[in-house]
Amino acid sequence: MYLLESERLLFRNFTPEDCEEMFLLNADWDVLKYTGDKVFNTIAEARVFFEEYQIHTYEKIGYGRMTTILKETNEVIGWCGLKYHPDLDEVDLGYRFHKRFWNKGYGTEASIACLDYAYQKLGIKEVAAYALKENIGSCRVLEKSGFKFTGNVEREGKSWKRYCINLPFDFDVLLH
Length: 176
What we know:
This protein is of the alpha+beta class.
């Protein structure tokens, strides 16, 4: 069941069938180097993560990151979505795509779809996003999606750029 769709993409909650694809996504150093996340060592480890994610995120909070699928080919291109951080009392937007899907506008399209979903379906009025300073591509996606830079944040020995967007937002302005 798809939770939302955009012009070229479909979004649904993670399922056990996604574990191998997400394992491969996190095994690519070019994809992972700007995230601060660690590599899954096995597909079984990825499965445990996603099973726990189902319980601790979708069931408790009601939303989370979503598997992102290219409509044209039905390929999983990665994930995009929202995450609630109780320690900060904020919702952030995140995304991660296989390298072969970079520079095609999917990051911006997915981000805008998730932000619209955040406001229209979940009633969320403010969303944050973080990108390492070195991750110029992600910073550009966030800016193209309507986020505004709000300052730098130090976490786990790394310097992150923090962005924020207030909803509702007129995304048509960005698309024309």
